[in-house]
Write a structure and sequence with these properties.
alpha/beta; Rossmann fold; seven-stranded mixed beta sheet; globular; methyltransferase activity; nucleic acid binding; RNA_MeTrfase_RsmD
């Protein structure tokens, strides 16, 4: 696993051993960032269920001004901390070692984000819990792009009632990225 492009290009990143996290493959990460290439430079990026921190670090490497990582697994958080130090992105990042809802609550009134990426454990309904919380959160701007990495069978039928709509989605062999924004009034 490595940074694919930008100022930290080719730097290898740590990940924790075992099945506690599911790092996004380089190929899927590259496809994602190709889709976001015009949105990342100059943005504030929130990486939820951050794992190794590779998505947020890739965003900083590609020109994001700042990234906040939220991860409650202590081993994974240590890995993120090490990866931030190794890439020398300490001034451009902040790590919160807590559950996602508590982390977002902690950010209320302090930050707004242009892009929010989340890769929660599959088939636990966590993306719905987070999206319900975000629908009332001050960390969203009117045009914030929320990207959820999810299993192919994940149901997003509740988005309309939360005031969100799917802008686009990209399916892969075993998962997908769903791009979500608040509905325009």
């Amino acid at each position: 696993m490595r940074i694919i492009a930008g100022t930290a290009r080719s730097l290898p990143l740590k990940t924790i051993e075992g099945l506690e996290t599911r790092p996004t493959t380089d190929k899927i990460k590259e496809t994602l960032f190709n889709m976001l290439q015009n949105d990342v430079p100059g943005c504030y990026f929130l990486d939820l269920f951050a794992g190794s921190g590779q998505i947020g670090l890739e965003a900083i490497s590609r020109g994001a001004l700042y990234a906040v990582f939220i991860e409650n697994n202590r081993k994974a958080a240590k890995c993120i901390e090490d990866n931030i130090a190794f890439t020398k992105f300490t001034k451009e990042s902040r790590l919160l070692t807590t559950d996602v809802i508590s982390g977002i609550s902690n950010l209320e009134g302090k930050y707004t984000f242009d892009i929010i990426f989340m890769d929660p454990p599959y088939r636990q309904g966590l993306e719905e819990d987070v999206l319900r919380f975000l629908s009332k959160s001050s960390v969203l701007k009117p045009d914030t792009m929320i990207i959820v990495e999810a299993s192919l069978d994940t149901d997003f039928s509740y988005l309309d009632e939360l005031g969100f709509s799917v802008i686009k989605f990209k399916k892969y062999k075993t998962n997908m990225h769903v791009f979500i924004q608040q509905k325009r009034v």
